[in-house]
Design a protein that fits this description.
seven-stranded mixed β-sheet, two-stranded parallel ribbon
Length: about 220
């Protein structure tokens, strides 16, 4: 039976009044290709379902073009309707919109908790780790507590001009939850694997994060 991966996207489209935002297309498209090439069945869900707002689409990138052409993005499943027992991997794609709807959505957390406690891999890239901020396990502990991970950095947020627009600084919030963060220089690829938790720092890390998620699942098999 083919392994199955779920890519979760934000449904929030406003960057604190600064500009439109959404999910960062490359951070979904490149992992989608990695999982597809590895023989996984890949599904895409979004917080509200339907057509999630996009950010950063580059038409010259054939992977992004294939993703938006081949994935029925206007019909994404709402996270509330997802059965996490169907999936071996959940991958939280980034984009600034995640900072508003990932942290407090109960189904975003439900999916991650169930996949992780079921022996699967939880992966997230860039702002995607916003899904981990309030993700607790069945014993009430934060999934990220004591874990090595990475995420979009404060320096990258400043360089993006969004420090005062986002509701919180992701790097700081994850540290508050007990995460042991590491980071590379701005915009450099950086991926951290801690058991069945895999995280990437920024858009440049998206492909390697998905590759590490595949490797982590294989290692745990």
């Amino acid at each position: 039976m083919a392994k199955r991966a779920l890519i979760v996207l934000t449904s929030h489209g406003d960057l604190g009044g600064l500009r439109p935002t959404g999910f960062y297309v490359s951070e979904a498209a490149h992992p989608w290709k990695v999982f597809t090439d590895a023989g996984y069945q890949v599904d895409v869900a979004s917080v509200a379902g339907g057509d999630p707002p996009q950010d950063g689409f580059k038409a010259g990138d054939p992977v992004q073009a294939a993703f938006v052409e081949q994935v029925d993005l206007d019909q994404t499943t709402a996270v509330a309707d997802v059965d996490p027992g169907d999936y071996d991997v959940v991958f939280y794609a980034g984009g600034h919109g995640t900072m508003w709807d990932f942290p407090d959505d109960p189904d975003v957390a439900r999916i991650g908790r169930a996949v992780y406690e079921g022996g699967g891999v939880v992966a997230a890239v860039c702002h995607g780790p916003a899904a981990l901020v309030n993700l607790t396990l069945s014993d009430g502990s934060h999934l990220v507590a004591g874990k090595q991970l990475t995420s979009f950095t404060n320096a990258e947020e400043e360089a993006a001009g969004a420090t005062d627009a986002v509701p919180f600084l992701l790097a700081d919030k994850l540290a508050e939850r007990g995460a042991q963060r590491t980071e590379a220089a701005k915009w450099r690829p950086h991926v951290v694997t801690d058991g069945r938790l895999v995280t990437g720092q920024n858009p440049a890390s998206a492909t390697a994060t998905a590759e590490a998620a595949v490797k982590a699942l294989d290692a745990d098999a």
